[in-house]
Structures are given as C-alpha cells and as structure tokens.
Inverse folding.
C-alpha cells in the first residue's frame, strides 16, 4: 500500500513586473502571472531566453556539424557508399525512441539509397536479443552483402561486436545518446552528444534526434537529390523525443515544437491524404489529435513500446510509421493496439502481484525494493517498477526468471553494457539460471552508479541514473539485495526516503478553465526539466463522483478504473470537471480537502478538466464540526421522517435523516458526501448539514419466504396485466435494488419475462412444467444475495458510531461489503 506522500510547494519568487509584462505578450487573454512565475522558477529570466523558449522561430538551432570531425567522417563514409552503390543496414532499437530513429533513417537515407535493395533495416527482438549489436545479427547482414551498418539509439559500447563486423568487412557508423565507452570504438564514425559539453544545445538529444542530425548533414552535403523535404521527418522526431523522456531544452525543445506542429497538420488531413496514415490511425485509436505532448507520452509512445514488450519483434512498427498505404497502416495500427491492450493486462496483473509482495516488506527498513518472481513477463517490469518507485519513494528493481536463456539475459531496459567478457559469460553462466529485470529510481538516487557498484554480483547491467536493466544469477539475488540496501543506507545517512509530489502553483477552482490552460500552454512541450505544471487547490471538495471500468478498444476486457468528478471550492459557484485514473470514487476524501492536479483539455469530450495527481483531507477538515457532530446516532429510536420534532431538540431540524439501513459502506458514504456537498455553495464546516442515521434493527423474513413472495407478486402481475414500479416492488419485498436485479434474473430462469416501459416494469409468465425449485442455480443466487444483505443490515444496526465515523471518513477506503 502506498506510503503517505510528502507534499512540497515550489519556491515562489515573484518575477519582476517587466518580466510579467513580457510574458503577457504571449498570453493576451490573461494576466500572464502564473506563466511568468513558472518560467521564472525554471530559469527563464531574460527577454532573449523567453523569446527563444516560447517562439521556435526565434530559436537558432545548432548545425549538425557541431558534432565536429565525427559528423564529417560519417558523411564521408555515406558518400562513399552512395558513389559505390553499397548496401547499407540501419541497426535500430525496439523502444519508441529506437523505432522512430530507425524510421527517420529509413525515410531520410531512403532519399539517397533505394529502399529494400540498397537500404534495409534490422531491429533486435526484445525478448531474445535485447539492446545493442550482436554477432548473429551481424552475420545475417553480412550474408545479405551489407558493407555499412548505421546504428541508431544504440551501439556506443558494443566494442567486440564492432570489431567482429569489421572482420567481416562491414564498417559501422554509430548514432547514439547512451553511455560512452572508455575509448573511442573502431568505427567509421560515432555521433553521440555525450561527447559535447553539458551546456551544449545538442547535449540532451535522444536517439531519434541524433539520427535526424545525421540526415540533416547529408541533405546539406548532397543537395538537390532528396525528393521530400527534411521537415517531413520532424513529426517522427517529436514522437521519439517526448516518448524517451529526455530533457526538452535546446534543440530538443525546438525539434519537438516543430514536430508537434507537423504531427497536428498531418492529422487534420483526411486519411488518404496523410503523409503518415499509420500515425494518424494510432491517434484515432487512442482518441488524440496530435497537438499536445501528452498525446505522445500517453498515446503514441506507449503503443509503439508495447509491441516489443509483448511480441518481441517490433520491426513492423517502422512500416507502420513510414508507409503511405492506408489499408496496410490500418491493419498494423490495430495489431499495435492489440499489443498495447495485452500490455495493459499484463501490467495490471504484475502490479497486483507486486502489491501483494510489498505487504510482506517492512519499508521502514528497506531502502531499495528488490522483488522477483518466476512468472513475471520481463517486458512490463520497467513500467511496474516505475510505478512502485513513485508510490514508495524508493528505487525499485523487479526481476524475472521467465524464459531466460543466454541470448535473452541482457537486461530489460536501457543500453546494456557488458561488465564481463563474452567468453567468461558463456563459460561461467550458460548452464545456470539467470534472473533479468528492470530498475527505476526516484528522489535523485543515481541508480546506475548504485547498481554498478555491485558489478561482482551481476551478469550484465546498463542504463541511466533513473532507469536501467540488469541480469544476475538467481542465487545472487539475496546477496545483491542486502548489499545494495546497505550501500544506499550508508549514502543517505539520516535522510528518509518518502514518496514526494511537488506543486508548482497555488490556484482556485475559479482560476481553472480555458484562460489558464492557454496561459500555461506557452510552456509546452513539457518533459524532463520542464514538467507539466502541477496545481495546488486548497480547501476544496468533490461532488458527483462516479467510477467505471475502462475497457479495451474492442469493449471486451476491463483494463483499468477511472473516476470522474466535479470539484468545488469557495471561489466560484460553478464546479469544474476532473478525472482520477486508476482510482475508485470512494477514495476521494469526504469533506474539505487539498489536491494537486494538472489542467488538461480533453479533445474527445471537448472540455477542459483537471487530472488528479494527489489528494488528502484538508488540515482544517474533520468529520466533527466545532459545534456539533456531523453524524448523529438515532438508531433504534422512535422517530419519523415526516415529524422531525420527534428528534432531540439539541440537534438542528435541518438534519438529513437516513431511515433505510444501508447494505454497504459505499452506500453510507454516498449519504455522508451528499450532506457535505449539497447544503450550499459557500458552506463551511460550521454549517454543514448533519446526517442522522436513524434506522431500526431489522425484522427480517426468511430468504425462502421472500422468494415465494416475489414469485407470487410476479404471477399476480402477469395474471392481471398490471405494471409495477421498481420502488413499489422494493417496498413490498423489503430488499435492495441490487438484490432485486438478482431476483429478476431468477424469475427469468423460471419463464417470466420482465420488460421496462418508461418507469414501469411489465411482468408476464409463460407457464411451464418447471417448478420454483429452491435448488435452482439462479434461485440459489437470489437466496444468497438476500442472506448477505440481511447480514449487512444486521451489522449496521449494531456497529459502534466510532467505527462508522472512522471508516466513512477514511480518504483511501474503497467501499465494499464487509
């Protein structure tokens, strides 16, 4: 269960008036104050920075030849291949950055080399080969006559594989952004922004952006050859950049801004006229329009990533992103959507299993969470590890031994760097069982260095400070877990790891809407280093909350839960809509609370709404007001709803009286929420309506007698052809709505037909030889439902008031039957 979150508020230094006025030029419909505060917080503090940040037309991008001699070497080798008509292979990677990088090279180099004859591409199988070059794949390319390999998003540390390719007469150009080798590899060229200074505007490029820079240099070197403009590649660049979660500053931000614009322009075209019908179809399937970075991070990116996670082979994704065959792209998009549906299902299953294992851990003595299971599919472990890390505030490593072999043991995430020689690996570990998995970090813990320090216990490991993949002998897991926990504890000292969420601005419900949305939109595209603004809303409350199961795109399997609600506070008479993904409505606090949310525009519903990030009861909120308790216990007393003067005169006459005994905590919480949110728009805790629980100890008939009564009423209504309302039936039989539904199903099993006409039910009976057998399965279900309902009512007639207050007011309780 998630620990209590620590909330922090970003330091709010008031920007000078000249800066606010400068920002207002870009937000004419609003004051610009909130955007100015955020930009000032994030280091944008002069006019030149501001203009270049907001207006991409004012930004001066870097030349691709800023990579220096390496770019010149790469272009020279490509020119040699062009002149000699050599066969070239693009060696890509299987995540969204790698797939889009491969697609950029496929389309870009394809302007100079004939596709499928002079130019081919190869993407490793995630479940069999993992990241990077491998000898088997190189052998395959050599047999096809390739003389040059151009990598993208991978290859920097594959020294032995590069040497092997050279022995076969194949040169390698590496384009990558991952960890650098100690010495320059024996390549024709290596283009990696990590060779540049951290302050360089190209330093944060992802794999797809590095690939784009190579194509840009070739366009400049061999002008007048390409049929299509270089800018046609920018939509793919934006997808890879945003999906890879790189810092969107410098050229990264510039390319993402241009790319999103291209993406939106193409999506507005009819499918037959789109340059990328596959991308358009994916956007349609995830109900996005391509004009927001979140359309990529929550829509396109996860779908592209899902293919390799589920199927291993993601090669067809390049065709999906680059083909202009609408029919073929639609087919591939639906295969991709199915893979994403399967990914969600697997992720949900693993999340539930991990949550169960977490209950057995003492988090007070755990610095790094390390969990393993033989059945976990490796493809989704990184996603689940990231969620656990966020919820617990601790680095998380999840390991699986499912289907592990020598080929597939190279880590599930990130650029995998071998810590041993291949000969040592094959001799030492080939016959032993290996676990492999994914690691995710939070709270500025450098996970890469932390795990690398345990190299003596690992098979392979590689990645980044916040995301990595690893493999190790199963027998080493206990030693590894103890060592990494001890190491982090020592480095932290007295620092405590807790899940943290930071708010950037404090706003009111009255501030929410189109005006604020457009003002904050000047910060887009958001990403690493420039996160989506998180808004703190204090002393608010929720109304009209309801949740539903979100099904897959074919309407079959339940994938996840979402709660919809309206939020209110004292600033406005109007409520504002919102969503809370992955949560039930019962998890919303009752009464006044504080929340942190993101403001969004729902293109599907065409409305502005908030996306809830975190919520907690307000420090001023309580279920007991200063003057009188909110819940009055009048159970088993003589009273009448029509005669409130029968109540104790110490209590307000405006109390809401609940005479019907509830059958679940959810039912009781709904009544309490109604009291807290319907009394008046500007209500305070001192004048909230009170809830008087005033039911009596039930005097139940036997379930069998209730069933016979229901059958008798049904026969009478059929014989007299009289309609009946649902309320009349409930009052006559004395059961709940839910149990009545079970009873109607049982009636249908005996030959009754129940039809709804307006607000009435019409019941008819087709006589048969079948008796009203109490052992019948449908009837047995009804009897069981009645017994359960009666048990619940008996419980609520006697449960102490203190228990009702404690459970009904809990902010994370999911209403369900006891």
């Amino acid at each position: 269960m998630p620990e209590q979150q620590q909330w922090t508020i970003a330091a709010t230094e008031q920007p000078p008036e000249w800066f606010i006025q400068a920002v207002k030029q870009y937000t004419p419909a609003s004051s610009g104050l909130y955007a100015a505060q955020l930009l000032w917080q994030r280091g944008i503090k002069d006019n030149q920075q501001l203009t270049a940040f907001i207006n991409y037309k004012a930004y001066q991008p870097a030349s691709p030849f800023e990579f220096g001699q390496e770019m010149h070497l790469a272009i020279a080798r490509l020119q040699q291949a062009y002149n000699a008509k050599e066969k070239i292979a693009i060696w890509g990677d299987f995540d969204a950055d790698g797939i889009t990088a491969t697609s950029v090279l496929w389309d870009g180099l394809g302007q100079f080399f004939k596709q499928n004859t002079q130019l081919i591409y190869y993407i490793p199988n995630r479940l069999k080969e993992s990241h990077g070059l491998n000898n088997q794949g190189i052998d395959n390319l050599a047999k096809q006559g390739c003389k040059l390999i151009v990598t993208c998003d991978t290859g920097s540390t594959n020294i032995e594989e590069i040497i092997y390719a050279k022995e076969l007469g194949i040169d390698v150009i590496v384009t990558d952004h991952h960890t650098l080798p100690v010495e320059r590899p024996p390549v024709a060229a290596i283009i990696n922004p990590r060779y540049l200074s951290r302050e360089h505007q190209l330093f944060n490029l992802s794999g797809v952006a590095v690939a784009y820079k190579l194509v840009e240099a070739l366009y400049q070197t061999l002008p007048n050859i390409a049929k299509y403009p270089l800018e046609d590649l920018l939509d793919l660049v934006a997808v890879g950049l945003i999906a890879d979660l790189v810092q969107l500053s410098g050229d990264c931000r510039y390319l993402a801004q241009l790319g999103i614009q291209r993406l939106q322009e193409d999506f507005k075209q009819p499918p037959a006229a789109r340059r990328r019908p596959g991308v358009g179809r994916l956007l349609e399937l995830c109900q996005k329009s391509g004009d927001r970075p979140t359309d990529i991070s929550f829509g396109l990116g996860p779908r592209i990533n899902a293919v390799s996670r589920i199927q291993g082979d993601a090669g067809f994704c390049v065709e999906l992103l680059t083909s202009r065959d609408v029919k073929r792209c639609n087919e591939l998009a639906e295969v991709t959507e199915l893979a994403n549906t399967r990914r969600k299902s697997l992720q949900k299953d693993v999340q539930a299993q991990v949550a169960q294992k977490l209950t057995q851990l003492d988090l007070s003595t755990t610095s790094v969470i390390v969990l393993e299971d033989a059945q976990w599919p490796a493809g989704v472990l990184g996603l689940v590890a990231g969620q656990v890390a966020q919820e617990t505030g601790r680095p998380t490593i999840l390991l699986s031994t499912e289907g592990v072999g020598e080929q597939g043991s190279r880590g599930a995430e990130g650029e995998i760097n071998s810590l041993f020689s291949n000969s040592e690996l094959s001799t030492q570990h080939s016959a032993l069982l290996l676990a492999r998995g994914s690691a995710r970090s939070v709270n500025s813990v450098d996970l890469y260095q932390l795990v690398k320090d345990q190299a003596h216990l690992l098979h392979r490991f590689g990645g980044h400070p916040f995301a990595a993949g690893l493999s190790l002998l199963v027998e080493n897991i206990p030693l590894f877990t103890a060592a990494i926990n001890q190491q982090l504890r020592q480095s932290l000292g007295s620092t405590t790891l807790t899940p943290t969420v930071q708010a950037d601005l404090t706003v009111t419900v009255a501030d929410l809407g189109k005006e604020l949305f457009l003002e904050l939109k000047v910060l887009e595209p958001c990403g690493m280093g420039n996160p989506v603004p998180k808004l703190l809303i204090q002393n608010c409350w929720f109304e009209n909350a309801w949740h539903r199961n979100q099904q897959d795109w074919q309407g079959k399997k339940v994938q996840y839960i979402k709660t919809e609600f309206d939020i209110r506070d004292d600033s406005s008479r109007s409520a504002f809509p919102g969503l809370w993904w992955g949560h039930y409505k019962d998890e919303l606090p009752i009464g006044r609370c504080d929340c942190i949310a993101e403001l969004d525009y729902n293109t599907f519903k065409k409305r502005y709404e908030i996306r809830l990030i975190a919520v907690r009861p307000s420090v001023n909120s309580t279920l007991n007001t200063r003057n009188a308790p909110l819940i009055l216990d009048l159970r088993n007393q003589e009273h009448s709803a029509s005669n409130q003067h029968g109540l104790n005169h110490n209590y307000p006459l405006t109390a809401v009286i609940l005479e019907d005994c509830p059958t679940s905590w959810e039912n009781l919480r709904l009544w309490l929420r109604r009291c807290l949110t319907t009394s008046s728009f500007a209500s305070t805790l001192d004048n909230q309506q009170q809830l008087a629980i005033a039911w009596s100890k039930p005097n139940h008939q036997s379930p069998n007698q209730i069933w016979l009564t229901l059958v008798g009423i049904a026969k009478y209504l059929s014989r007299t052809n009289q309609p009946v309302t649902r309320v009349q039936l409930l009052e006559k039989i004395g059961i709940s709505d839910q149990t009545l539904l079970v009873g109607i199903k049982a009636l249908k099993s005996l030959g009754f037909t129940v039809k709804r006409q307006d607000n009435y039910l019409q019941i008819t009976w087709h006589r048969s030889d079948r008796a009203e057998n109490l052992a019948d399965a449908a009837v047995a279900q009804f009897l069981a439902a009645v017994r359960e309902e009666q048990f619940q009512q008996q419980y609520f007639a006697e449960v102490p008031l203190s228990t009702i207050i404690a459970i009904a007011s809990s902010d994370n309780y999911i209403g369900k039957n006891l």
User: Anything to note?
Assistant: The CA atoms of residues 515 and 798 lie 52 Å apart. The longest strand covers residues 535-551. Residues 326-358 form the longest helix (33 residues). The radius of gyration is 31 Å.
